[in-house]
């Protein structure tokens, strides 16, 4: 590897370590999923460069931690403004490497930037406490301090927001960070890092290591004792590996893992609201979000009406490359993802599910799948137990509230859940009974920077966004002042 003096223009092709843009002879391609064409190559870095990034983050930590929250806030605020000013550029880059429609990419830049803005402000409010004493000669105080060097491993489905949701609370708290972006979407991460430097984030405070060997880089990040905290968003399978690898150095962890979100539609639901909620929750990002409704549980009295109304809306969805105007459903991220969706639908239809819309790959291109609605889905089908991560709605019938709650909770996952009912008592009872970190009541979209995002059970540990999201990067120190 060698260092370049001047930062490259993005689309970017160099990693950022200690304020230097690092290139390598060993590179891997970034592919536009809509066309299959290579749009850039980025460095394929390994253990040595990961160590160098940790060195840089460790070296930068004392000065960054010592800055006042207000000084850090001013820099983060500038980053927010620069990112916002670059919305169009970033959105084009995102659609090129990730595939989502441009309208969604623009919305994600705003969503991603909202975390920078929020944590710039919230960093100023990392309050400790004074605790009433139990002994006359003593006083009790707690203070909040940054944990130290943080590693952030990000997924490809939200190439900007999943990075800012981890990085900005860490930076606001006074931590320094090494980011490993997903191999499918490194360009947005590198562009964000470039804009962070422009905003005045000091060398080494934010580092980005691109790699095609996530396991090798991940192992170094987990095993290095100087990394005090790991924040990961991705599959439960990989989350378990990282959890185990972090045991040796007893790292703090935030894990945002897989979901299997139930969306419950009761007989007394406002059907238009329920359909709109299901559409928003299911088909955004071509169904590739961990809070997408994976199982749509519909009470028998409203089942047929709901299925038909949903089908009518789904038929209107335009599939195509994300850069084309009017497109609402883009390609899936890669061949494995497309194969998985196809297999899950084949399994379901072979076991008796009916595709009332779609049910097959789209002829737009190899990675496109038709927006689909399947009825008569039952627990024998694999898609009831696994994240579909594609534009396929699975409708399951239920009779009673108790049955709905039992079915909804019958999963090791517990990230998002949704319910639609006009009866406030029922809505409240069911919301309390659902084993999930987040519940949307008559609402299919709820992620924002001020609300705690996260899961229970095997969907993860900790929360991102909100006050809780800052807390994840702070240690509480108790100081006992004696001898008074
Ligand atoms: P998905 O199935 O959504 O692609 P993954 O969990 O495979 O989710 O990927 C999420 C992130 O985890 C990506 O940045 C990926 O490179 C990274 N990753 C995958 N395997 C490992 C591993 N063994 N160690 C560390 N990171 C990994």
UniProtKB/TrEMBL annotation:
Keywords: Oxidation, Oxidoreductase, Potassium. Residues 21-479 form the Aldehyde dehydrogenase domain. The active site is at residue 256. One of its GO terms (molecular function) is succinate-semialdehyde dehydrogenase (NAD+) activity. One of its GO terms (biological process) is gamma-aminobutyric acid catabolic process. The keyword tRNA-binding does not apply. Gene3D superfamilies: Aldehyde Dehydrogenase, Chain A, domain 1, Aldehyde Dehydrogenase, Chain A, domain 2. PROSITE patterns: ALDEHYDE_DEHYDR_CYS, ALDEHYDE_DEHYDR_GLU. It comes from the Bacteria. Belongs to the aldehyde dehydrogenase family. This is Succinate-semialdehyde dehydrogenase.
């Amino acid at each position: 590897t060698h260092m370049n003096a001047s930062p490259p223009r993005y689309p970017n092709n160099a990693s950022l370590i200690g304020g230097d843009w690092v290139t390598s002879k060993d590179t891997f391609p970034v592919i536009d999923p809509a066309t299959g064409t290579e749009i850039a190559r980025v460095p394929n870095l390994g253990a040595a460069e990961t160590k160098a990034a940790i060195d840089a983050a460790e070296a930068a930590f004392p000065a960054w931690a010592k800055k006042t929250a207000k000084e850090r806030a001013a820099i983060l605020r500038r980053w927010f403004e620069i990112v916002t000013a670059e919305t169009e550029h970033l959105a084009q880059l995102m659609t090129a490497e990730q595939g989502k429609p441009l309208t969604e990419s623009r919305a994600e830049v705003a969503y991603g930037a909202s975390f920078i803005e929020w944590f710039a402000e919230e960093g100023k409010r990392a309050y400790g406490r004074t605790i009433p004493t139990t002994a006359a000669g003593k006083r009790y105080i707690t203070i909040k301090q940054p944990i130290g060097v943080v590693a952030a491993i990000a997924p490809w489905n939200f190439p900007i927001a999943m990075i800012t949701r981890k990085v900005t609370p860490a930076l606001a708290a006074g931590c320094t960070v090494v980011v490993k972006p997903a191999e499918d979407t490194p360009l947005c991460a590198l562009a964000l890092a470039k804009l962070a430097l422009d905003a005045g984030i000091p060398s080494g405070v934010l580092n980005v290591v691109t790699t095609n060997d996530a396991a090798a880089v991940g192992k170094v990040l987990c095993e290095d004792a100087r990394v005090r905290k790991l924040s990961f968003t991705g599959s439960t399978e990989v989350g378990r590996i990282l959890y185990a690898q972090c045991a040796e150095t007893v790292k703090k962890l935030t894990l945002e893992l897989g979901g299997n979100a139930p969306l419950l539609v009761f007989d007394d639901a406002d059907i238009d609201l329920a359909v709109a909620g299901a559409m928003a929750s299911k088909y955004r990002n071509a169904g590739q979000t961990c809070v997408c409704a994976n199982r749509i549980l519909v009470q028998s009295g409203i089942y047929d009406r709901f299925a038909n109304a949903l089908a009518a809306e789904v038929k209107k969805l335009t599939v195509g490359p994300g850069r084309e105007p009017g497109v609402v459903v883009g390609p899936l991220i890669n061949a494995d993802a497309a194969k998985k969706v196809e297999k899950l639908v084949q399994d379901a239809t072979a076991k008796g599910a009916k595709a009332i819309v779609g049910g097959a790959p789209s002829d737009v291109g190899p990675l496109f799948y038709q927006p689909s609605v399947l009825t008569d889905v039952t627990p024998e089908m694999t898609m009831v137990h696994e994240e579909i991560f594609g534009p396929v709605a699975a409708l399951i019938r239920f009779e009673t509230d108790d049955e709905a709650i039992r079915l909804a909770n019958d999963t090791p996952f517990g990230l998002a859940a949704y319910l639609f009912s006009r009866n406030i008592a029922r809505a409240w009872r069911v919301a309390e009974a659902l084993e999930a970190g987040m519940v949307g009541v008559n609402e299919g979209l709820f992620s924002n920077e001020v609300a705690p995002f996260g899961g229970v059970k095997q969907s993860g540990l900790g929360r991102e966004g909100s006050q809780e999201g800052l807390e994840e990067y702070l240690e509480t120190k108790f100081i006992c002042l004696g001898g008074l």
